[in-house]
Design a protein that fits this description.
Layout (H helix, E strand, L loop, with lengths): L5 H15 L1 H9 L20 H19 L7 E4 L4 H15 L3 H8 L1 H11 L4 H10 L5 E7 L3 H16 L3 E11 L4 E2 L2 H4 L3 E14 L11 H11 L4 E7 L10 E4 L4 E7 L4 E5 L4 H5 L9 E9 H4 L12 H4 L6 E3 L11 E4 L5 H9 L31 H14 L3 E12 L9 E10 L5 H9 L2 E3 L1 H13 L4 E2 L1 E2 L9 E3 L6 E3 L3 H8 L10 H4 L4 E2 L6 E4 L3 E2 L1 H6 L1 H4 L26 H4 L5 E7 L6 H13 L4 E7 L2 E2 L16 H8 L1 H9 L9 E2 L2 H33 L16 H22 L3 H27 L19 H29 L4 H11 L5 H5 L21 H24 L7 E7 L3 H9 L1 H8 L1 E7 L7 E7 L1 H8 L3 H7 L5 H10 L1 E4 L2 E4 L3 E7 L8 E6 L2 E6 L4 H22 L8 E7 L3 H4 L6 H24 L12 E3 L8 E9 L2 E9 L1
Parallel strand pairs: 1-2, 6-9, 7-11, 15-24, 23-24, 25-26, 27-28, 35-36
Antiparallel strand pairs: 3-4, 3-14, 5-6, 5-13, 7-12, 8-9, 8-10, 14-16, 17-22, 18-19, 18-21, 20-21, 27-34, 29-32, 30-31, 33-34, 35-38, 37-38
Helix pairs in contact: 1-30, 4-6, 5-6, 16-17, 24-25, 25-26, 26-28, 26-29, 27-28, 27-29, 27-32, 28-29, 29-30, 32-33, 32-34, 35-36, 38-40
Catalytic activity: tRNA(Ile) + L-isoleucine + ATP = L-isoleucyl-tRNA(Ile) + AMP + diphosphate
Organism: Hortaea werneckii EXF-2000
EC number: 6.1.1.5
């Protein structure tokens, strides 16, 4: 991992945070600042955190850290979802092993008090692991003041929330067909039921329903029946219905046809029966009707669906015949019947189908006194009402039911079907649809308010708001809020035996008052409150609490209120006033509404049907507002193979092992700089985390390390400690300093704007680009300045008391200080801007930078941690858009030049002759010209040509059509547009390149439709030119290696050293000197490494070859040295000490020289 062990350093920083109680210190420093409210959605603690939790935790850490640094007080409390199925499943599994029973049977044996005690015991099993992992990933949150949904204070606030809804008439009791988990013995909400679908194979069976004799038919349908019987000519006439749930057939009470469809009479030649069905259903009975015409015959008679209404048929089973013979076993009509599914007639089992229930209720087959047949116990097993299948689970009974019906001659066809079927997200078992007596919160009537409140919130990504969540709210159904469970917050409803008198309790005090209970109520779970009764006010005896508990989503949706025990724990709460807590300006609401709605929430995409939904519904019902202003939605983290992460499949690395290998900063940055923060899925790759280390963290650390080395060098050379001076930039005219400082201000301006919009996915790439600009551009281009011209190899001037080099040295030191201050300010700013994202490395570097701050800045802030100081503010005086533009253009040219070299595999060490930059914008060329020195040096080219004359270099344009895009947009005109493209002039193409659009054959084309290619016309003159293009800029690099260029490059390097030596010696241009040089042995030999004769000989050979190169260079490039060494250049046979003005030992292009300026 290079010079730093990131995980070990993070552990050190973590220990420092713990030692200084850093999180609480941050809270203390900001406690008097305006509040920023963050709501943390509560997870279950029944397992260890996975990558989805770590992703959400990272987002929930970044944003509060940012706003805390922006001057807000951000309280962060962890929350636990402690009730519900996950906990009960653990206990049920143990009870199954212990007693051989689970669920209600187990509770009956051990009692609900013992059952709940066991639940409480395991509910926070993994809390310590969560605390350790969340802390290690760098998230600051208060675990000591956590909220738990099982706390009596939280539960009481849930009662209060429900009580307000009850008072508003938003709660009702009814039976509704709901998704039902037979494994958990409870109904689920529709959102829960839609969480998990699996491909399963189920039986598909078509059964017959013979028409009753005409004399047993109602008078109004006898004419239709007679027509069918006449057409059948004495054969049996039957309705047929297709189903994939044979287990519902014992509860059949009706059939349903579409009123507008035409139904056929089909003679099945094998059974000699007549079947009434849709033509589209023939494929169900005969697979390929065209090939099976010898197996059936369609009769001439066709009956419209409306003619079938009311026709009676013979029941499949007699279990419920006596109860429904006068109301059911007839054909009903509804438009929900589909042509493309089944045979066009649907069997109705009202207790097990939502449409069945509504239609049967509408048609009077069932009503409040005549409930639908529902012969199942809580576990989904048939009761004694269906004696033939008593005790059998519904899914297991499918085969036996089909076998029974085959014996009765009622099975027409049977097969298998593979389809996606909903499963219980907790037990992973198939769900059924079942009518369940339940308590509901009205939602459908509030859909307009929900959609209106949605518009007042901001979502990232916005497509979740306008798409998935909007659609979910628009189609919202009343919320089944009750669960037939044991470990949960009890519904605060006390009812009479006939359910006519209902009392909703909103607080513990109200329960004691209404019941007369004088004991202390310390807990609100079922074992504590179920035995408390309330005397009837209507002479109905004693009111008892209903058995149900809240859907745990109701509890998590109540957390904005319940987590702070609203309204009971707030000033001015009045227990005697039923409306206390509902006013925004009086009572408890006066304080509460200073922090409500919350500023920010964040969870995964799956919460659009979960926590986001329940928060929104309850907030709208209570105060007609969503309880949050901004919502950040992350996508799902998948395994690298694209599958769901699975412990059993072992298809993902343990998160803690990844942190141990690469550090939490790397994991955080990998997750945040990925599609997952745009609500898209992420295929987790450990290699991606590793690349963050090498591509981001290590360069950032190396930038600091380089600064630290130069600060130490400054101390060594000048005996001066580097102290940051923010005002020194007023006298700094260096263009690269001005650029990097201006870029830093632009970065801060951008980050603030995007973070205020919660767009993390745009912020991180920009921050990472700044790291790259600092390391690969600023430091790379200013290395010598930062080193004091040459660092440890700086010229050691020997003035012999005869030169006044002080001012030159002062200028050089000032330039070095400018560069060091610039680099310090950039890194100091960058680590503060990165602190919310990579809190460990940012703090690590900050703590090392802090000693260099001036005393005035140290005194004004707690400099023990970057997280105690403010987010960097924009320094308006450092903005320079012109310099930013110029350097950006220079970077583009250099990158294209590097690309040309890479394509030709020519090293940067090889000098090349010419780089041509072609652009039609003169300003672009002028900008590049101002920085041409950097371009020539970086690309190691001699000449830079800036021109608009494309024709001179044989530049040719061609326009290519995106055929697919043109075809989709312009249909038949696409061919005409494509044919016109070769006729476009160069001006047309330039217009398109600059504006992004072009009109061809009357149609406006954009970048989606066209691609412009530029290339050189092949010729002898262009043979050595390598082309690179980006946008409107085109560069040509002469890739031929001219031998003389290497010598010229060597001469430039030596001359540069000579000129610096003159400057060190304090010489002015008119001072005449002679240059003496000698070639030194290679470094290894000079350091005494060559002790054997062979090494010594090799060293001498190398020295002689270098000497030859230098002699040739001075001979051929003599003109270059006429000013700097006006009295000539000579090779020294032996070192001369007399007359030496200044000397330097220099390494130039891997050659070691001793250069001396001699007095003439």
């Amino acid at each position: 991992m290079g010079s730093i062990n990131f995980p070990a350093e993070e552990e050190r920083v973590l220990n420092t945070w713990n030692d200084i109680n850093a999180f609480h210190r941050q809270l203390e420093l900001t406690k008097d600042l305006p509040p920023y409210v963050f709501y943390d959605g509560p997870p279950f603690a029944t397992g260890t955190p996975h990558y989805g939790h770590l992703l959400a935790s990272t987002i929930k850490d970044i944003i509060p850290r940012y706003w805390s640094m922006r001057g807000r007080y951000v309280e962060r409390r962890f929350g636990w979802d402690t009730h519900g199925v996950p906990i009960e499943q653990i206990i049920d599994k143990k009870l199954q092993e212990e007693l051989g029973v689970r669920g209600r049977a187990a509770v009956d044996q051990i009692g609900i008090k013992e059952y709940n005690r066991r639940c409480r015991e395991v509910v926070l099993t993994y809390a310590n692991e969560w605390r350790k992992t969340i802390g290690r990933v760098g998230r600051w949150i208060d675990f000591d003041r956590d909220y738990q949904t099982m706390h009596p204070s939280f539960m009481e606030s849930c009662w209060w929330v429900f009580g307000q809804l009850y008072k508003k008439g938003l709660v009702y009791h009814g039976a509704r067909v709901l998704p039902y988990s037979t494994a958990l013995n409870t109904p689920l909400s529709k959102s829960e039921a839609s969480e998990e679908y699996k491909d399963v194979q189920d039986p598909a069976i078509t059964v017959s329903f013979p028409l009753l004799p005409i004399e047993e038919q109602p008078e109004g349908v006898r004419q239709s029946v007679q027509k069918a019987l006449d057409a059948a000519q004495g054969k049996n006439v039957n309705f047929v219905a297709w189903t994939t749930t044979p287990w519902t057939l014992p509860s059949n009470v009706a059939l349903c046809a579409h009123p507008d469809y035409e139904y056929l009479l089909v003679l099945d030649k094998e059974s000699d029966n007549i079947y009434i069905m849709l033509e589209a259903g023939l494929k169900v009975l005969y697979k390929d009707p065209k090939k099976a015409k010898d197996k059936f015959q369609t009769l001439p008679l066709k009956l419209k669906g409306s003619e079938l209404a009311g026709i009676r048929y013979k029941p499949l089973f007699t279990y419920f015949h006596s109860q429904f013979k006068d109301y059911g076993f007839k054909v009903l009509l509804d438009t929900y019947v589909k042509q493309d599914e089944g045979v066009g007639i649907v069997h109705q089992s009202p207790a097990f189908g939502e449409d069945d229930y509504q239609i049967s209720w509408r048609e009077g087959v069932i009503n409040a006194d005549r409930q639908p047949p529902n012969p199942l116990n809580a576990a989904g097993e048939y009761t004694s009402e269906v004696p033939d299948f008593e005790g059998q689970h519904v899914k297991a009974a499918d085969k036996n039911i089909m076998k029974h019906l085959e014996g009765e001659g009622r099975v027409v066809r049977k097969s298998q079907i593979t389809h996606r079927y909903p499963h219980c997200p907790r037990s992973k078992t198939p769900l059924i649809q079942r009518a369940v007596p339940s308590w509901f919160i009205k939602v459908e009537q509030s859909v307009p308010d929900l959609l209106s409140n949605l518009e007042k919130t901001e979502w990232v990504p916005s497509m979740v708001k306008t798409g998935r969540f909007h659609q979910w709210l628009a189609s919202a159904k009343d919320w089944n809020v009750s669960r037939n469970r044991y470990w949960g917050t009890p519904l605060p409803l006390w009812v009479s035996d006939d359910m006519k008198e209902i009392v909703c309790v909103s607080s513990v005090a109200e329960l004691k008052k209404l019941s007369g209970y004088e004991g202390e109520i310390k807990d609100l779970h079922r074992d504590s409150v179920d035995t408390i009764t309330i005397p009837s006010q209507q002479g109905k005896g004693t009111l008892k609490r209903v058995e149900e508990v809240f859907d745990c989503w109701f509890e998590s949706g109540s957390m904005p209120y319940a987590s702070s025990h609203y309204p009971f724990a707030y000033p001015e709460y009045d227990a005697s006033n039923p409306e206390s807590g509902m006013s925004r300006t009086e009572g408890p609401g006066k304080e509460f509404f200073t922090k409500y709605p919350g500023d920010f929430i964040a969870e995964g995409l799956d919460q659009t049907r979960g926590w986001f939904y329940t928060l929104s519904v309850l907030g709208t019902h209570l105060f007609n507002t969503f309880p949050y202003k901004n919502c950040v939605v992350n996508g799902i983290v998948l395994a690298e193979d694209g599958k769901k992460m699975s412990k059993s499949l072992k298809n993902f690395p343990d998160p803690m092992l990844v942190i141990d290998r690469y550090g939490a900063d790397a994991l955080r940055l990998y997750l945040i700089d990925s599609p997952v923060v745009r609500g898209e899925p992420l295929r987790f790759s450990e290699m991606g985390v590793k690349q963050i280390v090498s591509g981001v963290l290590l360069p950032l650390w190396n930038s600091y390390n380089f600064f630290a080395q130069q600060a130490a060098l400054l101390k060594k050379n000048t005996n001066t400690d580097f102290v940051f001076d923010p005002d020194i930039q007023k006298t700094n005219s260096n263009v690269m300093d001005r650029w990097i400082l201006a870029s830093t201000q632009s970065l801060l301006q951008y980050v603030n704007k995007e973070m205020e919009g919660y767009r993390l996915y745009t912020v991180v790439p920009r921050l990472l680009k700044m790291v790259d600009d600092t390391t690969n551009w600023y430091i790379r281009f200013n290395r010598n300045r930062l080193k004091g011209q040459a660092g440890s190899a700086a010229p050691k001037a020997t003035t012999n008391g005869e030169t006044n080099g002080a001012s030159a040295a002062d200028d050089e030191q000032t330039d070095t200080l400018h560069a060091l201050n610039t680099l310090y300010e950039v890194i100091y700013t960058l680590v503060r801007a990165l602190a919310p994202f990579i809190p460990f490395l940012s703090d690590n570097i900050f703590q090392r930078l802090a000693p260099h701050l001036p005393e005035s800045m140290k005194k004004s802030q707690d400099a023990r941690s970057v997280h105690f100081v403010g987010f960097p503010t924009v320094r308006e005086e450092l903005f320079d858009t012109v310099v930013e533009r110029r350097v950006s253009r220079m970077q583009k040219v250099i990158e294209l030049g590097r690309l040309c070299r890479d394509r030709k595999t020519i090293s940067l060490k090889t000098p090349l002759k010419t780089l041509v930059v072609l652009h039609q914008d003169q300003e672009f060329l002028d900008d590049v010209k101002t920085l041409q020195g950097y371009i020539l040096e970086e690309l190691n080219v001699r000449d830079l040509v800036l021109t608009t004359e494309e024709a001179k270099y044989g530049v040719e344009y061609s326009v290519m059509a995106d055929v697919k895009s043109l075809g989709m947009k312009f249909k038949k005109d696409a061919a005409k547009i494509k044919a016109a493209l070769p006729k476009l002039s160069k001006d047309d193409i330039h217009t398109y390149l600059s504006s992004g659009s072009l009109t061809v054959e009357g149609h406006q084309l954009s970048s989606e439709d066209l691609r412009v290619q530029r290339k050189l016309k092949e010729s002898k003159e262009t043979a050595n030119l390598e082309v690179a293009v980006e946008g409107e800029v085109l560069v040509l690099l002469d890739s031929y290696a001219y031998p003389e260029l290497a010598q010229e490059g060597l001469a430039r390097e030596v001359l540069n050293r000579v000129q610096r030596l003159r400057k060190k010696a304090g010489l002015v241009p008119t001072d005449d000197v002679k240059l003496a040089y000698s070639v030194l042995p290679p470094a290894a030999a000079a350091n005494g490494a060559a002790t054997e004769g062979e090494k010594d000989a090799n060293s001498e050979v190398s020295r002689l070859e270098a000497e030859r190169q230098i002699e040739d260079m001075f001979t051929n490039q003599a003109a270059a040295f006429t000013k700097a060494a006006s009295k000539g250049v000579q090779k020294e046979a032996s070192p001369e000490t007399s007359g030496v003005i200044a000397e330097e030992e220099a390494e130039v292009k891997e050659l070691r020289l001793m250069l001396r300026l001699m007095r003439v």
